[in-house]
What does this fold into?
Amino acid sequence: MILTVTCNPALDMTYSVDRLVPGQVHRVKEVVERAGGKGVNVARVLHQLGEPVHALGLGDSSFGPSLAELGIRASFLDVMARLRRTLVVQGEETTSLWEPGSPVPADAADSLVELVGTALPGARALVVSGSLPPGVPAGLPGRLAGLAHDAGVPVVLDLDGAALQAALERGGAILTPNLDELRTLTDTRDSDLLPTVKHLADVNGAPVVLTLGERGLLAVTEDGCWLVTPPERVEGNPTGAGDATNAGIALGLAHGLAWPELLCRAVALGAAAVRRPVAGEVDLSAYASFTASVRAQRVDAMTFGD
It folds into this structure.
């Protein structure tokens, strides 16, 4: 069983239009509404792959049952008066509008720690991903990671801003920042990415996997440094590709894969997610094809971009 935690879930709205033009009226061709949030997207991908998964987090009375109707085991605390919405407008390019989360009670963080603690026995990996709603301290994801670490469960943290900084200072969990998130921590250039990620891994005391969008992953692990790139440029909707990548990392950890194979599968999943119009899904045939052709390259002795 893999556990996912979403502290700031959402109702994901996807609008399909021919072309988005600011200041103009648009006729929407298709509307898709579904329960979402980064950890929920991770859970959806794992469920699609047939992996046992338990999605946990903060929400309202309807959020957990909406996932259970899809066959996904879900436990969400009823602490939010209103779920935020994320709007993705998909035309020639993808534009996203994300609402902030609803404030939660002061004891919500402690309640979530207790909930995750009851789910940890038998878990094989934990993923905590996404933003935090008002009222949740930045240290909560790191606190959950520490709880899992004490139980011998590997942890993947996909965070931003103060939560990412707090997790780095606490250390011990696998961090998966993207380039923008990395730049909130450090002043770095593309040519200096490898030394920067090496430094962060040293500070963290655990692997750091930098997600590079269509360029793949740059990872510093206990087995060395790896650059893994997709086999081809993939056109489609990039929303949710990072969540699929994190699902692949968690899946590899749960099954004890070596880092090169784990990272290749994660990149293949991320690329396959771009082929789907909504987050939380992957194109399974594309995933199989990409997995057969993705390769991991050692980059211990080079600077990224050389």
